[in-house]
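ok new one. same drill as before - structure tokens go in, u give me an amino acid for every spot. 106 of them this time. try not to just spam alanines like last time pls lmao
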């Protein structure tokens, strides 16, 4: 097998193994999360993101313990704030206006 394919297979096996960890977050660490999604933080930002990640893991565990017929898992947004997720989804609060094109005509 060519070296590139061997490396890809090794990385793929490693990542696939951690995907299962994301479905059962007890064994999924913040360090694994950062490595899986290529995230790099320092200082206070690291602490903030780790705290958000840990809160997301707790929420996933709580939900999955209820046995509702489906499970949640950890994804690349597990260290985002509620405001960051809201902006990603494009939600605008009532009364907000996109000002890029000027005021709306009457």
């Amino acid at each position: 097998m060519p070296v590139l394919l061997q490396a890809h297979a090794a990385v793929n096996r490693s990542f696939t193994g951690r995907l299962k960890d994301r479905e059962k977050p007890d064994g999924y660490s913040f360090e694994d999360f950062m490595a899986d999604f290529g995230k790099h933080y320092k200082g206070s930002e690291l602490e903030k993101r780790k705290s958000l990640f840990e809160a997301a893991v707790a929420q996933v565990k709580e939900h999955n313990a209820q046995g509702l017929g489906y499970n949640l898992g950890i994804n690349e947004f597990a260290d985002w704030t509620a405001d960051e997720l809201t902006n990603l989804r494009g939600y605008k609060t009532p009364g907000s206006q996109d000002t890029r094109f000027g005021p709306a005509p009457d």
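Confidence is low (pLDDT under 50) at residues 1-17. and btw Helices lie at 3-23, 30-37, 43-65, 82-89.
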